[in-house]
Amino acid sequence: MLTPRRRQLLIGGLALVALALLDGVAEAHGVSRRDASFVESIRGAAIGPFLYLGAKHMVTGYDHLLFLVGVIFFLYRLKDVLLYVSLFTVGHSLTLLGGVLGGIHANAYIIDAIIGLSVVYKGFENINGFQSFFGWAPNTRVAVLIFGLFHGFGLATKLQELALTKEGLVTNIVSFNVGVEMGQMLALTFVLIGLTWWRTRPGFLRHAFMTNTLLMTGGFLLVGYQLSGYMLSQQ
Amino acid sequence: MSDVVIDVMTGDPTARLALAEQRARIALAAAGAMLVAGVLLMTTILPAEYGVDPLGTGRALGLTSLAQANAPAAAAGAAGEAASPESLEPVRPGANTPQTVPLKQDTVTFTLGPGEGLEYKYRMEKGAGFVYKWTATGLVGFDFHGEPQGAPKGYAESYQMAEGQSASGTFFAPTPGIHGWFWENKTNDLVTVTLTSSGFYASATEFSADGEKPHELPSR
Which of B5, B41, B145 sits opposite A128 (nearest CB)? Predict the structure, then answer.
């Protein structure tokens, strides 16, 4: 069913995605060192820079993006997309604000491993794994909300890595949070356009199984990468 | 949504696989995902990111050197603090930077009340350098930073930010402008900070709650 031309396009697209992922991996923990020293030099409120850093973190944050792709993979109605994305947003905003303001220092490796697990969960659920094996699946809305809470802790640990000054702290965190949402909207727009186009293709359902298997692979990679980082840091 | 998912199992909306077959497919997918992730981790990611090379593939592919290059930053990151700029600063072996302004030396002492802060900065040309050492009688937070000439007011580039009772080093100005320290007394007592430096700066200025105060600097 796949014409050679289409196959070429698909392979090209996948290669691009792989490159983007590799690039993300090279940059490792979200906020790069150059941005970090800039942030540390800021005293007081700086709405613009924090908006930008939040958006950048989301657009280049492959772990958040993989999870979101999994979440909206089978959501055909805009209403559902909005509902699930809102749940995710509420979840991560709560813990981002609460984590930084409350000074809760979660271990970044563990949080990132759980974020990887959220990707595995979503991939597995998208290939109907829970229903087939256990005859029961977790409530997806509750799951998205709960994993949203963990993603927020992840964002909080990234912000806490920077030595934020007390002046303008709330303004800066809220700006970062709003930036995260802007980045998320931007990224989601592109993902939705891509998915919508892909769904009109005859091969979509066949490739969906493979794609979600790849999603699980990515999730397992993140889990293994972060857990081994955690174990090495404990030695 | 569940209808759609069952369609995914078969790739054909009209046919449906038996549950056992479905399970086998899903198990295969999950196991395959885990296997691929495990192989990638063992062969490339662990060697490149952490320098852990269980199969020797990292050495063969030259990936372990990546981990060595990343090591200081990763170690500092794991400890939950920002990597200090020194560990990231490239070493310039045997570089000589001829200096045009006279060599000066400076020793100053400041007394800070509880929670009080103060800045002391040297005016320098790009590439000019100095050696320094400062000590404090109690814990202070400090920010070694510079304000490039012509930059908007309040803009600063931070070189080192930490808490402690002393620091010393060699500094080369990355931009023309004023470069120096902000100290903040973190204790409930008086703290005295003593700074000694020698280098190629033109002048020094103290910034405190009382305003700006220029300092006379003797030439050597």
Answer: B5
What is the per-residue pLDDT for B132? 94
What are the residues whose beta carbons fall under 8 Å from the beta carbon of A156, sequence distance 6 or more?
A95, A96, A98, A99, A100, A104, A106
Instruction: Supply the pLDDT for residue A224.
Output: 94
Min CA distance, A205 vs chain B (Å)?
Answer: 5
> Which segment of A78-87, B94-103, B173-182 scores lowest on mean pLDDT?
B94-103
Condensed to tens digits (0 to 9), the pLDDT of residues A96-139 reads: 999 988 888 888 899 999 999 999 999 999 998 998 888 888 89
Instruction: Give the tens place of pLDDT for each residue, B111-122.
Output: 998 888 899 999
Could you tell me if B18 lies within 8 Å of chain A, comparing CB atoms? no
The mean pLDDT value for B136-156 works out to: 86
Per-window interface: B 139-178 vs A, CB < 8 A: 143, 145, 154-158, 161
Give the CATH number of domain B104-215; options: 3.40.50.1000, 2.60.120.680, 3.40.50.2000, 3.50.50.60: 2.60.120.680
Q: What is the pLDDT of residue A209?
A: 92
User: Residue A150's domain spans which residues?
Assistant: 33-234
Question: Taking CB atoms and an 8 Å cutoff, what residues of chain B touch A163?
Answer: 82, 161
B157 CA to chain A: closest CA distance, Å? 6
* Residue A186 distance to chain B (closest CA, Å): 26
- The complex's ipTM works out to 0.71
Question: Would you call B26 and A128 a contact, using CB atoms and an 8 Å cutoff?
Answer: yes
H or E segment to which residue B147 belongs: strand B129-148
Helix and strand numbers (H, E) in chain A are 10, 0
Measured at the CA of B84, the angle between CA B106 and CA B158, to 5 degrees, comes to 60
Question: Backbone dihedral region of A186: left (phi > 0), alpha (psi from -120 to 50 degrees) or beta?
Answer: alpha
